[in-house]
Structure formats: C-alpha cells, structure tokens
Design brief:
Elements: H1 2-19, H2 22-61
Helix pairs in contact: 1-2
C-alpha cells in the first residue's frame, strides 16, 4: 500500500517538524520514501511485463 505509506509518512514527517521531534520526522521521511520506492518498483514491473508480452507476441508471429 504505497499510497498509504506515502500519506502516513508525510503526516509523521509534518508532525515531527511541528513538534520538533527529529526521530518522528526521520521515520516519516523513511516511510514516505519506502512508499515512493514501491511505486517505482511496481512501475518497473509493469513495463517489464509489457516487454515480455510484446516479445511473446513477436515470437508467435514469426
């Protein structure tokens, strides 16, 4: 649930900034970054699957 990680991370980061709690701010940053990394990984996997599908289609045509 990358969108949830990004949302919660951003909330923790903001709360840490407002309260001066550096550990909460840091935890929020890491959680938000983990959510973004999940998004990038999903995107890369989707592109890889599209390439596999194209290669299979090309192979079937030859």
């Amino acid at each position: 649930m990358s969108w949830l990680d990004k949302l919660l991370g951003r909330g923790k980061k903001t709360a840490g900034e407002m309260t001066g709690d550096s550990s909460m701010k840091r935890e929020g940053m890491h959680q938000e970054q983990a959510g973004m990394a999940d998004d990038r990984a999903k995107s890369a996997e989707e592109m890889a699957q599209e390439e596999r599908d194209r290669a299979a289609e090309h192979k079937a045509q030859t």
